[in-house]
Amino acid sequence: EHMRKIYAIGNAHLDAAWLWPWQEGYAEVKATFRSALQRLEEYEGFVFTSSSAQYYAWLEEAEPEMLDGIRTYIRKGRWVICGGWWVQPDCNLPCGEALIRQGLWGQTYFRETLGTTATVGYNVDSFGHSSALPQILRGSGMDAYVFLRPGPHEKTLPGSTFWWEGPDGSRVMAYRIPQNYSANLDLEAHIAECAKQFEEEPENPAFMLFYGVGNHGGGPTRRNIEILLRPGTAPAGFELGMSSPAAFFKAQRGRAEELPVHKGELQHHAPGCYSAHSGIKAANYQAENALLRAEKFAALGAGVLGIQADPALENAWGTVLFDQFHDILAGCAIPAVYESALNELGGAAETAHRQENRVLQALSFRIHIPYEDDCVPLVLFNPHPWPVRALVTHERGSWGNPGFPQPCGAVDSGGRIRPCQFVATAAQLEERQCAAFIAELPPLGWETYRILPAGAGEAQGSTGRPGKTPVLENEFLRVVFDPATGLPCEMTEKMCGAQPLCGPCAQAAVYRDLTDTWGHGAKEIGTQEETFVLESVRVTENGPVLQRVRTVSSCGACRIIQDFTLLAGDARLYMKVRLLWLEQRACCKLLFPTGLQAARTVYGQQFGQVERPLDGLEQPMQNWADLSGRAGGQTCGLAVLAGGKYAASARKGRLALTVCRSPAYAHHAPFQLSGSVEEHDWVDQGWQEFCCVLVAHGGDWRGADMARRALELAQPPVKIPETFHPGPLPQRYSGAELPEKIVMTALKPAHRGSGYILRAYESEGAAVQARLELPLFRQTLNAAFAPHQIRTWRLDPTGGMAAEQTNLIERGAEQSEE
């Protein structure tokens, strides 16, 4: 009789920080790796599997001699590196570039320090997996993937071993671990349970079984190994041997054509983690985007002035990658973890801002700006390779320092005048003024504006309309507010006549949520109890540049302040939210009701989007969600972009954005909370602030150009106030321009070696022959993009070398074959 094979995978799942701070995780790595080396010395057949380059970097820092022993066993094939990423991150919430950097940092470190790289991706404890991962894994040198969640009770898959295919067609061979990634107590029972599960797949000849003490480390014990070596341990019909995931997948290649295919994401597990702990999620969003923007400006400085990038910019990514560890970013760790992580992410963002400022100040000071009376010069830098219109505000004046000429206008380098409007100041001082205007900026470059005296009618202050139901209107959009709630109840996109709303928009509601921190067992998060009630609504700004309505509402002790802003010449409605949240075991959602028929909902994800049913389930999203359908005989929709918010749901034409949750810290069912509210620490208490953009559009989500609009929200232009001086640089410059549907996600200094890395992808699921204009690098790229394809090049800022195509870990064709 043919025996089926069980590959026993000795491992130690190590949570770098969770119910303990990272310093304790550091210590557990040292102890676990020392134990694994001892087991390798004692048992000839034992094989140890490990992931996460961060842990080896800690070891190199604290116990470098231990790495010599590890290298010895790597050469013997008994210490196996899986998961070529920096840590095992959350696989839903980091942006696509961050997931690529996990592989770039991890694989580079393993190659340089241990002389090997991983071929198997390995996120055994992450809470769901984006469908962008197959392409990211393949581009990072990995052709297989091991995961645990979602489990069989959460998602039915065609088998434990299958081909996982992403939207671009990339495939990796994937394996869902049976039962658990560790066997902490009773290995015999674990083997029996796994074998029982294997019996349900008689067509599969081989399986992996994971064992070893995990979470707080430890790894395989002597007793574990002796049980596996003992005759008779294998269940009837199975042979059992200690091995590695790489060996398992290599053996499965012979039956590759027989394996079933799963297309799309691997969801859902722990949906409460999409929104738990607003602070860590906002800090992650800010740090990611600060670094990505600073990298693009570093390239601008290198190409224009030869400014060398500071290594601090690249090194800051290590902090961000670590704090995207699944138990940190998901919001399910203890308070001490967040004290550290918020400091670290804030430091990474500040490093980005300082490096960005160093480059932009050098550029702006070399722009030729001649003296003019009563002139206030500003240089505005656009980080995106497409033209951007943006609201610019600038404050001046106090204690005798001059303010602005009144009236005034903003004049660009070509002499075109933009009206200025005086709006509320951030500083509360006599003589302080804030001028606002709409700037039009060239792709990946700068424009110089001069605020100068202007004729009557070209500038205007704000005028309120107290006591009236507000209406915001420009040539593209009309927004009518509901007098009962103070919220938008009608939005008309004038170009196509789209009117998607059918009730108060962005209304805050309290949902009672009795699940644990992860939302274990939940599909929908919370049950609606009540909505916030209007306290006041008024027009706060009304002029030729912007109109703004402020709505204040409350529910019990909670308050929400929503500023709705409509800009001249813009079809988008901007919303700034300040929320005071004091509820426990509850969540807050913003509700967006539409009257759309036959509606479909699409959520942004890394390097693309995913359509999901309107079933009310909590869903992860990257920056935006869209609801489109039929209204008034035409197809139209409403898109909601949210900065630093990652959770939404849709049901019966209504979109809901989950903006915060307040479970107890690190509460894991079935543990029951007891005692008074004061006996526990609760997540998301106090004030928070975030921004959203609402877009009424014709057609489906493609009509709103969501990928670019989301990046504009995440990475706004940068303003440098200037003076008068000669200089070699022009007042307007554009360094790169990409065509529609092609979105640049990174322009950065190379991780190793010389040059800069350009990465872009096709954003709407259609093949494109694209022309990438790159005057910054003195060349043009003609490139074919397959649907959703990511492409990467290494560029020479001097223009002396042609662009070289690389994979995602910045290896060219010859290097990739090494």
What does this structure look like?
The chain is an alpha+beta fold and about 800 residues long. The protein has 5 domains: about 5-270, 7-stranded beta/alpha barrel; about 280-365, Substrate Binding Domain Of Dnak, Chain:A, Domain 2 (Up-down Bundle), CATH 1.20.1270.50; about 375-460, Golgi alpha-mannosidase II (Immunoglobulin-like, Sandwich); about 470-715, Beta-galactosidase, Chain A, domain 5 (Distorted Sandwich), CATH 2.70.98.30; about 735-818, Sandwich (Immunoglobulin-like), CATH 2.60.40. The protein has 14 helices and 43 strands. Strands 11, 12, 13, 14, 15, 16, 17, 36 and 37 form a 9-stranded mixed beta sheet that branches. The chain has a 9-stranded antiparallel beta sheet with strand order 23-24-25-26-35-32-31-28-29, with helices on one face. It has a 6-stranded antiparallel beta sheet with strand order 22-21-27-34-33-30, with no helix packed on it. The longest helix is centred in the middle third of the chain and has 30 residues, at about 335-365. The radius of gyration is 28 Å and the shape is globular. The two termini are about 40 Å apart.
Outline:
With 818 residues, this protein is of the alpha+beta class. The protein has 14 helices and 43 strands.
Q: Provide mean pLDDT, rounded.
A: 95
Tally of discrete structural domains: 5
Based on DSSP secondary structure assignment, what is the total number of beta strands?
Answer: 43
Radius of gyration: 28 Å
CATH topology of the largest domain: 7-stranded beta/alpha barrel
Distance between the termini: 41 Å
- The top-level CATH class of the largest domain is Alpha Beta
The biggest sheet amounts to:
9 strands, mixed
